[in-house]
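In response to the reviewer comment on reproducibility (Comment 2.3), we provide here a single inverse folding case reported in full, input and output, so that an independent group could reproduce the run without further information from us. The structure tokens appear first.
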């Protein structure tokens, strides 16, 4: 069950910590007091998409934490699957919504995403809103509820149908992979032959691209070396006679022509020595250049080969290994296509056999559903009778199944061949019609309550929240719904937001939601009511005023009557 709910900075709620009990927990209050805010906060911690508008004005974040008591093995297994250490009989869900839009979700203190939060929350609590009957009026929802009620027999046949359906679809894929017949098949053959020829013509070597890249790197370094040799040699002795060797020789001769100057003569000797050194360096550099092995054409060849390999990788999977695998697959598909006639005949026979088995199991599934539908209808009738619709007639309608000779694969789905719809006659003398066409607002709420009561016994969820599902109900029916809620709350925790005095009087624990203004700020608060305050609130719901008079007397009588009814259960 939900033990505690802590809320901070959600809309009008600054800070709230609510402790909930087993049995029937009722929350009531004036219109606009903030009952919907409470549900929004619960939805937030259950992983529902959060709206930043929920964050209280002036705050940068909202936080909700819910502590559940749960010792179900399935829940423990789910937590272990997620890598979360289960705590003894306790699960804590928390979520922080930031004004920036960022979410931080935790389960037992471990960071998780919204999807994980929802997966765990779905096992812990179920919320039924005041408009939830709309989903029950959708025909697509009906078969799932019937199958859950039917139990293991239907589950077993659904698994068989699912396996055969997957097999039939796989066979269909293989038939399509053969390219069909005629021109389609020839076109596919041409494509495969082209792919095989393109890959084989490339004569790929293992890790060839890596080896070529390394060789290109070395060649590019060699190219830089060759360029350096050529540049330095050009500086020393270029063909235009402007190199250092020529210039030093000319300078030495020119300075030596200066007569009678000992300094000039010494300079001539120094320059001449530099000339001989540069000439020797140029000769040495020519020897290095002649001995250096560099092939610029090889660099071009490597570039072209790498481009060719890159094209193949781009077309066939991103690596040379995937290209080779594509070649193997192409050969296999070519062989299969070349033997297509025999293969196609075998596949068509396999498809025919699979469809026959699929049809047979779909019939078994249909028969199991029909048997379960009778029990399901009887269970719903009983629930409706408890809710004051004693003369309503409820049934499950199945659309006719196609004959065996008419079947085709697209007709089958995860539910086999069945389409079901819930039918109802709300009043004597009226024919049964689809649920969506005959249920008024109040009737829809009661039907939803009946179906959800049955569903709650199936899904193992022991904590239920009903958000004003009594919309459209009044008078005697209000008392009937209150009694049904009390029955449900005998075995499960029920949290109910209501405006009905009859339902409030059935509460095991009653909370008042009220809006106050403090220091020019509006706040929503929740109080647990004692017996006197509770009687006053029931009187208010009855339309009474003050703490005296007939309203209080009526409220007291209603509460005592509710206690007697609960004691009788």
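Designed residues, in position order:
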């Amino acid at each position: 069950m939900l033990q505690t709910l802590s809320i901070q900075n959600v809309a009008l709620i600054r800070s709230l910590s609510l402790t909930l009990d087993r049995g029937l927990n009722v929350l009531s209050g004036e219109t606009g007091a903030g009952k919907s805010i409470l549900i929004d906060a619960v939805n937030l911690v259950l992983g529902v998409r959060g709206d930043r508008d929920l964050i209280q004005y002036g705050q940068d974040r909202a936080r909700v934490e819910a502590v559940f008591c749960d010792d179900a093995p399935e829940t423990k297994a789910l937590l272990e699957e997620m890598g979360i250490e289960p705590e003894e009989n306790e699960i804590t869900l928390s979520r922080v919504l930031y004004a920036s839009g960022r979410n931080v979700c935790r389960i037992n203190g471990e960071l998780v995403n919204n999807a994980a939060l929802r997966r765990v929350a779905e096992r812990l609590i179920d919320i039924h809103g005041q408009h939830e009957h709309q989903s029950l009026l959708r025909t697509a929802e009906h078969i799932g509820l019937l199958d859950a009620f039917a139990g293991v027999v239907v589950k077993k046949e659904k698994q068989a149908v699912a396996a055969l359906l997957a097999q039939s679809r796989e066979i269909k894929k293989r038939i399509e992979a053969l390219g069909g017949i005629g021109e389609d098949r020839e076109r596919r053959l041409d494509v495969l032959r082209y792919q095989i020829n393109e890959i084989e013509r490339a004569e790929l070597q293992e890790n060839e691209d890596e080896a070529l890249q390394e060789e290109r790197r070395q060649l590019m370094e060699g190219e830089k070396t060759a360029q350096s040799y050529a540049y330095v040699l050009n500086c020393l002795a270029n063909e235009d006679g402007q190199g250092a060797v020529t210039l030093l020789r000319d300078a030495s001769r020119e300075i030596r022509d200066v007569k009678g100057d000992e300094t000039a003569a010494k300079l001539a000797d120094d320059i001449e020595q530099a000339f001989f050194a540069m000439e020797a360096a140029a000769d040495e550099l020519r020897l290095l250049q002649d001995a250096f092995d560099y092939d610029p054409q090889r660099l071009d060849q490597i570039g072209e080969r790498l481009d060719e390999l890159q094209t193949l990788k781009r077309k066939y999977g991103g690596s040379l290994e995937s290209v080779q695998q594509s070649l193997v697959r192409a050969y296999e598909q070519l062989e299969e296509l070349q033997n297509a006639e025999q293969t196609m005949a075998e596949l068509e026979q396999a498809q025919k056999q699979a469809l026959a088995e699929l049809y047979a199991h779909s019939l078994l599934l249909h028969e199991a559903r029909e048997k379960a539908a009778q029990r399901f209808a009887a269970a719903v009738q009983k629930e409706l009778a408890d809710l004051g619709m004693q003369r309503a007639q409820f049934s499950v309608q199945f659309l006719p199944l196609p004959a065996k000779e008419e079947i085709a694969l697209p007709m089958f789905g995860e539910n086999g061949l069945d389409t079901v719809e819930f039918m109802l006659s709300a009043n004597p003398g009226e024919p049964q019609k689809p649920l969506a066409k005959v249920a008024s607002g109040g009737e829809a709420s009661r039907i939803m309550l009946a179906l959800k009561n049955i569903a709650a016994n199936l899904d193992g969820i022991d904590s239920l929240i009903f958000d004003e599902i009594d919309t459209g109900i009044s008078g005697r029916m209000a008392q009937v719904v209150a009694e049904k809620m009390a029955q449900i709350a005998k075995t499960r925790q029920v949290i109910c937001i209501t405006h009905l005095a009859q339902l409030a009087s059935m509460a095991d624990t009653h909370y008042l939601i009220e809006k106050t203004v403090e220091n020019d700020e509006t706040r929503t608060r929740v109080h647990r009511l004692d017996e006197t305050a509770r009687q006053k609130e029931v009187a208010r719901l009855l339309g009474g005023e003050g703490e005296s008079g007939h309203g209080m007397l009526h409220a007291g009588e209603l509460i005592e009557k509710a206690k007697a009814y609960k004691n009788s259960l």
